Amino acid sequence: MSNLENKVAIVTGAASGIGLACAQRYAADGATVIGIDRQGCDEWESVSSLSPASKLHLADVTNAGELQAIVATTVGELDRVDILVTAAGIGDGGPVNMLEEDAWDRVIDINLKGTFLSIKAVLDNMMARRSGSIITIASVEGINGTEGGSAYNASKGGVVLLSKNVAIDYGRMGIRCNTICPGFIETPMFNGLMDSMPDFKADIAKQIKLGRFGKAGEIAGAAAFLASDDASYVTGQSLVVDGGYTAGHSHGIVELMGLT
Ligand SMILES: NC(=O)c1ccc[n+]([C@@H]2O[C@H](COP(=O)([O-])OP(=O)(O)OC[C@H]3O[C@@H](n4cnc5c(N)ncnc54)[C@H](O)[C@@H]3O)[C@@H](O)[C@H]2O)c1
After folding, report:
1. Is residue 258 part of a domain?
2. In whole angstroms, what is the distance from residue 243 CA to residue 121 CA?
3. Cα 20 to middle of ligand 1, angstroms
4. What pTM value is reported for the model?
5. How many domains does the chain have?
6. Using CB atoms within 10 A of its CB, is residue 162 exposed (0-12), middle (13-18) or buried (19+)?
7. Looking at the annotation, which residues are catalytic?
């Protein structure tokens, strides 16, 4: 277990799925967690019971003023921001000729611009203290294309490169920035999408080398490592956490050879 005792972490998208799991894990590891989400969450109780100074703020990551106000309050009350996780995001897309311009704008605004604005909001404090760990949540779909990916994949590819550039620009100040690229993780977003496409879900499952979908806590485990001093020399990296989905294709040859 990594030790985040006395650390202050801001987590966006903290009311559900991966963001909520990161908030829970960080609280269990000793951090005070400031969650940001545009919706509330009954399960947040599990975070504040572990870490009583933790709070969930209702705000939209596309609103720079709201983000800056939460960071200012956090710094006023807790003195600093040590860790940022940007997990707020939405899924949408489709082949380009079928994708409406406003759907494109919405995905890029929340997934990419929201990540930019969240990072921008915490940088002054991290720069002043010459320390910080920023963890963005992209996707394996930010590294490889997928059918109909368009807006979502473009937003996540943007997050991957934005994160590398933050690592380059602020490494001299002791600020690290890494991306986690999750594969297919069972969360409300994933379940909502997959429940309407059972054949597609079964096809993906066949390509996951560990033979199962991921759990949000498994992404939180990677986020705990990247936030901790165990990752003190890790920056500018994209950590793929996908059960081997992107390791390569399998076509049943080893089964033919008798490996079961
Ligand atoms: N679940 C997966 O399989 C998977 C795979 C790869 C990447 N991801 C990424 O992980 C992140 C978290 O996804 P999840 O699966 O936990 O989804 P989720 O829908 O369970 O949680 C996302 C949270 O983000 C919040 N949010 C959305 N737009 C917001 C906004 N404008 N301002 C503030 N909060 C906002 C939602 O209210 C929600 O609570 C997303 O960026 C997603 O793209 C998920």
Report:
1. no
2. 33
3. 10
4. 0.98
5. 1
6. buried
7. 152
